[in-house]
Hints:
The protein is of the alpha/beta class. 45% of the residues lie in helices and 18% in strands. The chain has 28 helices and 29 strands. The strands form ten sheets. Strands 6-5-14-16 form a four-stranded antiparallel β-sheet. It has a four-stranded mixed β-sheet with strand order 10-11-9-12, covered by helices on one side. A four-stranded mixed β-sheet has the order 27-26-29-28. The longest helix has 31 residues, at 864-894.
Amino acid sequence: xxxxxxxxxxxxxxxxxxxxxxxxxxxxxxxxxxxxxxxxxxxxxxxxxxxxxxxxxxxxxxxxxxxxxxxxxxxxxxxxxxxxxxxxxxxxxxxxxxxxxxxxxxxxxxxxxxxxxxxxxxxxxxxxxxxxxxxxxxxxxxxxxxxxxxxxxxxxxxxxxxxxxxxxxxxxxxxxxxxxxxxxxxxxxxxxxxxxxxxxxxxxxxxxxxxxxxxxxxxxxxxxxxxxxxxxxxxxxxxxxxxxxxxxxxxxxxxxxxxxxxxxxxxxxxxxxxxxxxxxxxxxxxxxxxxxxxxxxxxxxxxxxxxxxxxxxxxxxxxxxxxxxxxxxxxxxxxxxxxxxxxxxxxxxxxxxxxxxxxxxxxxxxxxxxxxxxxxxxxxxxxxxxxxxxxxxxxxxxxxxxxxxxxxxxxxxxxxxxxxxxxxxxxxxxxxxxxxxxxxxxxxxxxxxxxxxxxxxxxxxxxxxxxxxxxxxxxxxxxxxxxxxxxxxxxxxxxxxxxxxxxxxxxxxxxxxxxxxxxxxxxxxxxxxxxxxxxxxxxxxxxxxxxxxxxxxxxxxxxxxxxxxxxxxxxxxxxxxxxxxxxxxxxxxxxxxxxxxxxxxxxxxxxxxxxxxxxxxxxxxxxxxxxxxxxxxxxxxxxxxxxxxxxxxxxxxxxxxxxxxxxxxxxxxxxxxxxxxxxxxxxxxxxxxxxxxxxxxxxxxxxxxxxxxxxxxxxxxxxxxxxxxxxxxxxxxxxxxxxxxxxxxxxxxxxxxxxxxxxxxxxxxxxxxxxxxxxxxxxxxxxxxxxxxxxxxxxxxxxxxxxxxxxxxxxxxxxxxxxxxxxxxxxxxxxxxxxxxxxxxxxxxxxxxxxxxxxxxxxxxxxxxxxxxxxxxxxxxxxxxxxxxxxxxxxxxxx
Length: 895
């Protein structure tokens, strides 16, 4: 691959420059509209919707992995003759986008409240037009072959119409309702959050034991709490009716400390007798479990906090204090009253807003909800029945656990950016009018004094409709929906199975009568090279855009694909990406070598393999044809099963180890020797034809470099995107096996030469002892290749016989004994000194590691991976020692 005969490398520069190539093909693909799908096409349909990235986002590794895998499937399916629709789009990301624009307003010295709702929304749309689609440009740079003519946005008018239609339908069927319930409240974003949007994290906290005296002052109950500030909203203390400690107190009253209000002692079987003191304070407006218990016992609900999580007018003298400041003061005051019995360290699970990371506050609030139990049942059955399958299948368990224990979905958000809830409240009769269009009057009293609900819908509400709203529903474009719905495959990550996958399943079945996708592929989590989760604080984040600038898009994509094993997290490092940049260079140099050897640089003048008579194909040709067919079949099988790593490894191995390392070397005597013009034409044609087919199966993984090389090799002048995936070709398994045997002989001789340090240009004499005459013939047929590639001057083949003296020995293929005469080609004295010195160093290194591993302080205290690294190193050194000793034994025979 490094030899140079002339400068006829047609159109390919001497060095592969990915950025130049990528920019050029970006534009050309867009000009040719090669990613466009047609609803009226007679081809079988394959469709996907992109998981819409947030409008505020920039390309990160999760996006890069997910979209690379989607693109592999999209390009592959086009090659297989499908009418492929890959719908692109972005999500309006309500809370995140509002935060971005509010920060800009803060920098300008104003707020959204000063602007007013209408002007603020105008500013958000302005920001969206100026800065909000950076992620789309970055996805195009990644090579995403979406149908960009169909790009959608979750706030498009068409999608807004779909949202209103779904809301009204669910409301009219009594599946959407409004009421006072406990929700997760973000004091920073001033909005409700769903259970999924509150990210729980375990932190160090305390468990305070507080004493509540009985009304008559003769007894008391001690409760344990992690949130003493909520004592001000207590309405009862609950005990288990079977708890003998408190049976005589049930029905009596306690005096609530600090407030001096009477509260009852109630019995409830849900109380855990083993937690804390076995008695729990009931704060219905600030705890999910307490809220449910208060409903069972008809207890009042007292909200003691405002939207900022500061204590309100119901908190008495603590009004105006931030919740955490109030906590400290209340604990201090209880201690002064002698009512703080104990304080213990305690691990607390705290929920935080998934956007701003502020600790959320469970808070009673009037919100809109979807009753999801009825919607979840058919979505569960669809996966149970195999209408939708998860890949890997184990993720179905996660889906089922969530869906079978699902709670009603809080869909209202107290922000301004998003789909405003299509409900109008009447000031005269309190009636709520829900409509897809703005009503003129109240539906009940016909009063004109109606105002639209100020809340907007949870961003995930519109995202749940994505598979069918992007295809024109509810206008019901029959051709679009009939052709492309349900979609074929959804690619996503495990962390949004609840947020998105489950909700799309529910909405798709409800409104389309069919599941939204046939398969759900869940990709892995990307970690750093040490298996650690990437984070900015650790400084181990890899920026995909930086990697693209440094190594090219194809190198990044191939790295992601080859590491994307199902069910295993991906360990990624910059070194790995650089390694696959070297693979790109290998493929590039192979192409230049091929073009260099085509007659007068005429790339389109080569023969297809099918055009060469079979009896004119050499053993090496039949071997590479057979090996490519094995590779092609492996890639096809792997992609169909979403085993992207297996497909990528097959491509890499064939390209590097078979086509470049072996076939190119095997045909050099034909290309540059005196074997005749026909042999030369046939060999370069097999090489070019195989390379062309290799480009086709590699294209889904590395679209840019394959398109660039193909433009120089193609006979049709078409883009590689318009080429079919290679069809099955006839192989030559018998001839390929015989060629493998000859190659193994060459490999064995080369290994012997390396082990005993034969000078590179020195010719050696070889004797082969075999078991039968057919093997004699096999080796003699490969004599020319053996002599050329292993640098052999004389070779003898015999069935059985005496083993030659003063020769190095090896076994090829398990039954061919290979003897290389060393006399005259090896300086035994200097080689013995070199190996002895190497053995001494190896023994010393091994001894040092053995001492470490026998030291219990080391094996017991050092990190597990460090210990394992030392053990692995010892195995390598032991193997090296054995090889050196074997080499020294051989040299003794020559003395």
